[in-house]
Amino acid sequence: MVEIERSREIAATPEEIHARLADPASWTAWSPWNPTSHPGLEIVAEVPSGGPPERLSWRGGGLPAGSLRVTARPEGRGVWYDVELEDGRWTARGALHFEPTGDPARTRVLWSHRVEVRPDPFSRLRGLALDARLGPALERGLARLAQLCERG
Q1: Structural domain boundaries, residue 15
Q2: Nearest to residue 79, comparing CAs of 87, 70, 88, 67?
Q3: Total domain count for the chain?
Q4: Which residues lie across from 66 on neighbouring strands?
Q5: Phi and psi angles of residue 44, each rounded to the nearest 5 degrees, phi first
Q6: H or E stretch at 64
Q7: 8 FRET partner, CA 20 to 30 A, in 31, 56, 112, 146?
Q8: The domain that contains 113 carries what CATH number?
Q9: What are the pLDDT digits (tens) for 21-43?
Q10: Using one digit for the tens of pLDDT, what is the confidence trace for 85-126?
């Protein structure tokens, strides 16, 4: 398993940040994986009746086809999810969770991905390179999330 994690302090309460994260279909406003950054990317949200999307799937835009399934979203604590890419060839557990900073108007957001890596040598080598590729994308996403939350 490979773990990639980035964090950023945001001038907003956990509840304000959670409002931006509770609906994964709205993540395109801040996520680095969106149709603006990846022309041709198609994202489909599966919405249960009366609630926010529980699953997103995507294809195109130069990204591997995949899906994201929300597993938990406790109010004011964060959002946890599972990701599957390339028909299950790569799986990950992701989280955007909050930590207090000592200032009630500021929150540290930690974005992490724990990627399951197959035991074959090629997959293990690709897993080692994930931090260099995925880490900067997480940082860009957190910066955009901060901009949205701090603008109000």
Answers
A1: 2-151
A2: 70
A3: 1
A4: 58, 85
A5: -120, 130
A6: strand 63-72
A7: 56
A8: 3.30.530.20
A9: 988 888 999 999 999 999 999 99
A10: 998 888 999 999 999 999 999 999 999 999 888 788 887 777
Asked if residue 123 lies in contact with residue 100, where contact means CB atoms within 8 angstroms, the answer is no
At residue 129, what are phi and psi to the nearest 5 degrees? -85, -5
Q: DSSP letter for 152, please.
A: -
Phi-psi region of 127 (alpha: psi -120 to 50; beta: other; left: phi over 0): alpha
| Three-state SS at 15 | helix
In angstroms, the CA 44 to CA 72 distance is 20
pTM listed for this prediction: 0.90
Instruction: Return the DSSP state at 37.
Output: T
Cα separation, 47 vs 123, in Å, equals 33
